[in-house]
Amino acid sequence: MKKYSHAWIAFMAIKRLEVIASTTDSSILKDGNDDIKKQAQSLVKWFKNYRDFVIEGAWYPDDVFKDMSTSHIVKYKPSEEGKYTTFRGMPASHSITNMMKKKSPLYNQPYDITQGNCADRCEAIAHSIVDNFKILTKEDRGCPIATTNNHIALRFFILSHYVADCHMPLHCDYRPFSDEKGVHGAIEKKWEDQIKKSFEIDVDNNRFNYDPDGYPLQTKSVTPFVQSVMEEIATRQYIHSWGAGNSSTWDYMSSVSQYSYLFSYYLIPLTFQNTQGINEFMEQTEWGQHFDDYNKMIFSDAIDSIARIWLHVWIKYKNWAK
Ligand SMILES: [Zn+2]
Fold it and tell me: Where are the alpha helices (DSSP H) in 93-139?
């Protein structure tokens, strides 16, 4: 994913938290989740003061860290003699998982993991955020080893980048769509073009213009795909648990990568060659033929996942601080 797509997704994850914090609709948050709601409220309030670095933070991994070939991916390969055969649990609201359990011919079939450590990276950043909050609480302000809230916010946005990347199906598919001839970049450019068309961007200052609520200001030409993602995150049920069998960011992100892998093989047939261009991709693949429908699933699931992981991190710190 590209710069403004990442930044927009991070903003929408804050918005998603705001939905969780303020909803009175039990189809969005089931009764009995008052503590989750309160915690989401306090996290949104905290973000209000420290959201200035969304674009820098969400773009830091590609721009500065440059660990694309390891931490932005987990590459899967279907293989009859594969080392792994099991698929992990996920919250029932994750749209890609639901579809793949029903429709993927590779579900519950053996596979190998050939490259990448995105789940490890996400787990490590999640820990570092909790650690930084603890350091911030323990040390006096201005102490040379103390961190800052702005720095911690930056880390939240960095984390959002890796979580979002893992939802991009091609980041979990070992086929070579990412090299120069491949369609990977062209798909992400189509996403980026839609974000740029839908929101006012202050290019000189490298930021979105904001609406009165502090979110990216919409233009008059918001695209149907962008609109559909905003509607989805405002109405989808929020399930705080990580899914059956999962108890950490690592577990959860490992699940995400498994269903992203299945999704990629579902969307792009084995007959599609890497040398074929974006026009053929749009005409010949399931993904290309229903481009915005599948894009909506990818973006909405990514935003929901980021909100879930952030909230777990926040609650972990808050429980420590009690
Ligand atoms: Zn990336």
Answer: 95-103, 118-138
Q: How far is the CA of 164 from the centre of ligand 1 (A)?
A: 8
Ligand 1 geometric centre to CA of 61 (Å) = 6
CA distance 22 to 20: 6
Strand partners, 77: 112
Phi, psi values for residue 303, rounded to 5°: -65, -45
Tell me if residue 66 falls in helix, strand or coil: coil
CATH of the domain at 98: 1.10.575
Distances (CA, A) of 89 to 62, 93, 120, 199: 29, 12, 18, 35
Domain count, the chain: 1
The rounded Å distance from CA 44 to ligand 1 centre is 25
Distance between CA atoms of 115 and 229, rounded to whole angstroms?
30
Q: What distance in angstroms lies between residue 142's CA and the mean position of ligand 1's atoms?
A: 33
Write out pLDDT tens, residues 154-183.
999 999 999 999 999 999 999 988 777 789
Separation between Cα atoms, residue 13 and residue 44, nearest integer Å: 10
Task: Give me ligand 1 centre to Cα 165, in Å.
Answer: 6
Q: Flag the least confident range among 72-81, 156-165, 173-182, 225-234.
A: 173-182
How do 111-115 and 201-202 pair as beta strands? unpaired
**Ligand 1 centroid to 100 CA: how many Å?**
24
Q: Left (φ > 0), alpha (ψ -120 to 50) or beta: where does 116 sit?
A: left
Q: Residue 159: which domain range?
A: 3-321
CB atoms within 10 A of CB 226: 24
Q: Which two tokens stand for residue 101?
A: 């359990």
Cβ distance 206 to 213 under 8 Å? no
